C-alpha cells in the first residue's frame, strides 16, 4: 500500500502561478508532482490540491492525458477504480521541473517584487501576468 499524499505538500501561501515557467495548465505541474511516486486515484489527488474543483481537476487530467504525460487506467469490477499515472514522457519532466522550481526559489524575491509592483500600479493583477 502506498503512503497517502501529504495534504500540506503544496504551501497555500506559495502561489504556483508566481513562477513564469508552467507545465501544462495552472494545476499541471502540481498534478505531475502528486504522481511522481506512483499511480493515484482522483480522490487522492484532491487531498493536496485542496483549491481545485472536481471539474477543473478532471479537465487538467484530460489535458495531461491528451498530451501523453499521464495515462488513465480504469479497473473493471463492481466498484469502478480509476488511477492516473505518469508516462515515461511525463516522468521525463520531473528533472526540468526540479530545475524550474530551484530557479523560482533563487528568484523568489524578485518575482514577488515584480508581481507586487504590477498589482500596485494597476490595482489588480491581469490574467496574462
TrEMBL record:
Entries under PROSITE patterns matching the protein: HTH_HXLR
Pfam families on file: HxlR (PF01638)
Keyword check for DNA-binding: yes
MF-aspect GO terms: DNA binding
Location of the HTH hxlR-type domain: 14-112
Membrane-spanning segments: none
SUPFAM superfamilies in alphabetical order: Winged helix' DNA-binding domain
Annotated keywords: DNA-binding, Transcription, Transcription regulation
InterPro entries: HTH_HxlR, WH-like_DNA-bd_sf, WH_DNA-bd_sf
Name assigned to this protein: DNA-binding HxlR family transcriptional regulator
Organism expressing this protein natively: Kitasatospora gansuensis
Amino acid at each position: 500500500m502506498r503512503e497517502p499524499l501529504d495534504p500540506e505538500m503544496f504551501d497555500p501561501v506559495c502561489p504556483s502561478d508566481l513562477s513564469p515557467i508552467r507545465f501544462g495548465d495552472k494545476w499541471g505541474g502540481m498534478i505531475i508532482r502528486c504522481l511522481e511516486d506512483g499511480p493515484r486515484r482522483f480522490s487522492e489527488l484532491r487531498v493536496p490540491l485542496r483549491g481545485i474543483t472536481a471539474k477543473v481537476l478532471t479537465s487538467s487530467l484530460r489535458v495531461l492525458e491528451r498530451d501523453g504525460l499521464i495515462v488513465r487506467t480504469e479497473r473493471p469490477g463492481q466498484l469502478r477504480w480509476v488511477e492516473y499515472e505518469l508516462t515515461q514522457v511525463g516522468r521525463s519532466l520531473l528533472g526540468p521541473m526540479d530545475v524550474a522550481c530551484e530557479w523560482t526559489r533563487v528568484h523568489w524575491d524578485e518575482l514577488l517584487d515584480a508581481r507586487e509592483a504590477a498589482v500596485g500600479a494597476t490595482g489588480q493583477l491581469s490574467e496574462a501576468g
